[in-house]
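Retro notes - structure team

What went well: the batch runner handled both jobs without manual restarts.
What didn't: labels got mixed up in the shared folder, which is why I'm recording both outputs here explicitly, each with its sequence directly above its tokens.

Job 1
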Amino acid sequence: MTANRVHMKVSLNEKQITIPMGQKFDEIGREELIKTWEEVQLQDNINFIQDYETTRYSHYNPHNDYKIYYKFLFFSSGTYHDDFNILGYKDYELARTRQAFKKSFFKFDFYDSPIKSEQKIMFSSVMPANNCRKEQKLVIVSEDPVEYWAQMANLPPVPTPMPMYGVYVPEAILSTEQGRNENYYIQWLKNRDLFTGNTFYMSCKFYNAKDGRVIRMVTQPPIQPGTGILEPGPYSYEDWFFYQVILRVEDGPEPPRYRYTVHPFSSLNMMSGVVSVQTGTMVGDEIMFYEYISA
């Protein structure tokens, strides 16, 4: 073959002969390249092994009653009300936990930052609407005549009582007690390699199964100072939508306790590094959420 012809010029004065043949071998290094390619393909197609085991954090309450308190207010007729009737629910639907109400829920999203352009959602939790507390309310005859006359037929004539039943209100007292602990605990990773921080920023939305609306909530009533008039919004993202949630691990002679606390949040606190006083520890100091009103 022409490609294999080698021309050599030999002189009688030369004692060495140089053969002009290439010394490159294509197979050198191919095994290492194949191993590297295999590793890249495995990483692209198989997730890294990560430890997603979680630890359960309970709410730390300085009053030592192991409870956390929420209150939700909805807007109607120029003011806020702690009443599900504002959303179109009748008392008998709330008393009997009808499907439209049973399927409604509050959703809490936890972010790694309050700054909208930087934040990532880390996890979420859901609290069913029927996890709220009940309070006694009069039965309205025009709204629920069957219940009204059924109770009237069995009530003693003296003293003259009125028909009443338990109706859900948008307030929740969550604790370690069975049946009242949904959304009480926070589950977070044991292994902190993925996220080393212990502070999250909690926002809230209400999903209304009766009319399909999603109601975003803010953390303070948007009322103009000194006027009582509701501001039309939009509101400052960092100052209006978040509570600060801090995870804490308490070491001691006993096994460590995993707890969390909830604090009001503002951008001024973020810049100064100050943490507000804990909230949600008693009646009158609930974690408050108000329906967001846009212009």
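Job 2
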Amino acid sequence: MLDEIATEMRATAQWSGRAALSPQVATALGRVRRSAFVPPESEWAAYQNRPLPIGCGQTISQPYIVALMTELLDLQPTDKVLEIGTGSGYQAAVLAELAPAVYSIETIAELSQLAGQVLISEGCTNVILRVGNGALGWPEEAPFDAIIVTAAAERIPSALLHQLAPGGRMIIPVGPHGGDQKLILITKDKTGGITQREVLQVAFVPLTDG
């Protein structure tokens, strides 16, 4: 899986600006068992570089996309991270290898409950879960040094921009369901100014408000 990710990183470097994973992100991906976060019937495909269904109309993202989005956050050992869209918990588990605290919101209660069980069984004790509207963020725990959104928003939620700390980074797919979606990297400078750049064309399930 890591070899396939490395190949895709090189192939997309002209758009992403990253030709290779950092050692920290590669190590995190190597430590997390993707097979634990997919349904039993999909375990045979867990380490293939493709998305897989996880139930409730949702998917676990392609490993390359998980890797790239994580890489673009440039996580530091003291960063507080917000994830919108827990899904199976796989992305949260990868983030948990790199940051001391990961707050993750899922709109589908069944998925959140299942993800919580797997995260505990896999020893991820620094992930805090909530069921709710991800577009509203987690205001009582803000600000966050990094925010990752794992479903496509029609537009960038203003609440998430507000909850991003000065100097923080947010990675989010933006665009209509089934239409033209772009992975957007947003940074907030020390004075609160926002900049953004398009990274890649992507295809994600839609961000829902629960």
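One thing worth noting from job 2: The CA atoms of residues 142 and 163 lie 5 Å apart.
We'll revisit the folder naming next retro.
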